[in-house]
Amino acid sequence: MFETYLPVFLMLGVATLVATLMFTLTSLLGPKKPTPEKMIPYEAGSNTTGARHLRLSVKFYLTAILFVVFDIEAVFLYPWASLFRELGWFGFLEMLLFLTILGVTLVYAWKKGALEWEK
Amino acid sequence: MILGLGEYLSLATILFGIGAIGFLVRRNVLIQLMSIELMLNAVNVVLVAVNRFHPDNHAGQLFAFFVIAVAAAEVATGLAIVIALFRLKKSVDTDQAASLKH
Amino acid sequence: MSWWIGVAPLLLLLGGGLLIMLADAFAKERAELATTTTVTLALSGAISFYVLLVDPVLAPAPELVTRYLATDKLGAFFDVVICLGAALSTLLAGGYLREHGLERGEFYVLALFSAFGAMVLARAADMATLFIGLETMSLGVYAMIAFRRRSARAAEGAIKYFLLGSFAAAILLFGSALVYAGTGATSFVGIAAAMAGGEASTKLVLLGLLLVVVGLAFKVSAVPFHMWTPDAYEGAPTPATTFMSVAVKSAAFAVFVRLLMTSFGDPLSTSAAAGWPPVLAGLAAVTMVFGNLAALGQSSVKRMLAYSSIAHAGYVLVGLGAAARVPELGVSSVLFYLAAYTVSNALAFGALVYAGSKGKEAVSYADLAGLGRRHPGVGLAMAVGVLSLMGFPPTAGFFGKYYVFNAAVQAGGGWVWLAVLGVLSSAVGAYYYLRVVVLMFMREPAQGAPIAVPMKSGYVLVALVASAVFVMNLGLLPSTVLEMAVAAAQELVGA
User: pTM to 2 decimals?
Assistant: First the structure.
């Protein structure tokens, strides 16, 4: 087992070594002149505003859930697509049924107002 | 050296154990949901690993796909209930959900 | 008959469910969703009943189907039981939701898809279908429990059941993955073949089997995996409680029977030292005793019925465990018991739905005091329901208990003692069941207590009459259903 993964361990060791070396050297050798301006958190050069924890609107939740549910269905589309020719008409009809169910669900969610942002 | 089934099973058991302990110890619903996800993913490790040793009909790979899809649906339902509970209780702590005790 | 008749009930529910979803979203005026849903469920059950009654031998289905979904008599039997339970629940919902200001179409869609999941679960022939059916069924139920969005109790009951249910499902899944690791098969038949061929790793399989049993014991609310039951039953709107107590329990027992009989009927799995019979016997004993004792101390009839449903899971477990020794007798007794329990429990919960009105449920013993005298219809329905649950002849429940305990006695050995324990604990049960009847007919409400007014609803009335007819029919003429149960059991165990 060790022989197989030796290059990985070597790579890990070298990376750790280089990173440690660079951080140690800069903190030892680099000049340090702290001013209040330099100590504030860096946020793309502009002044920071607001608290660290933003409260997000619950509206995002609905969108996120719809995304997760519909997104995961792609799990079944990929294997189907890669075996499209072998599966033939049976596979095609089955996927059509699956997508019909999904489509009805989407229409339902749409009609019920789950996709409206302003309510 | 190639990893055997035993190593995969040990890894999965450890993952499943971490998930189970997390579920039982933590009282934040969101963390408990994450623990359940970890348990389901431990199962996926077993399914995919066993599939490698019994590749005749790819039952394990197929099963794992369904576990992933069902887990997503489960989380969607669970979060909806959590939101309903949060609106009423202003908390996602399961110890707060105690008014049904006598 | 052609094989696809076997899966036609499933397709009907799926198509009907999608159409009802669209109707709910697009219909301008109030659509009669309760009627449509009930008719869809009734039709679906009727197809399977017709198949069982007229020509139970279907042409063999293609391997692509049978690998995942069984098209046998056991599946058809549970189609009937699940559809009947679900149809009675949606009828109750038709009255209940309107009366309590909850009239939203989602309930019917959830009930329909949940029943679909339950039927897939009952027909599962592969660990993957088992899991998908279980989750389809459960996700609908979680949402139905949380249906009263203003109620903190509903949300609490739902979150408890959801968290513990998902935890149990994960355990079941890990168990089935271990069985897969041990045998290299996920289909029930494949597992059996690997066990018989001796190529299975016994340690992995037995550990996996134990975890699967734990997961299923949770779903049928066997002690010590019952903690969620009273809370979820109480928090849910009563029609949803009815659905959970009949359809979910029946489906979970269906897959329990099928899995144990198909995959784990070999000498090792059924041995008294390492197999599942001793585990089931222990679960059954604890469940019967605890369920009945805990039901004694309840002040809410809804909670009492929750504990009573735990106790009933114990009786069914006795029959299921006995099936290790006397397969045909044990399995058929379990099937008959579940049919009898479904109609009796639907009747008792239906009476509870009927007793409340205008946003006020009547669920405590105090609420029901004297109700039988003021409104004999409610009193009669409740009385027949609880007498059948108690096992009083000549109701459905009596024959259910008789067949289960008979199977245990025929199995001999320790099972006889389990049957004795079952009879003793159901004697305890008589106290809390009769207490309801006594309160309804022989007591007056306390001074100043709110007086329950029954609702007026054609839906609930139809549900009550239908379930009462079934209860008496199964009690007086049990032979038709019993023959179907025996035929299904014979086909399953290959006798």
Answer: 0.91
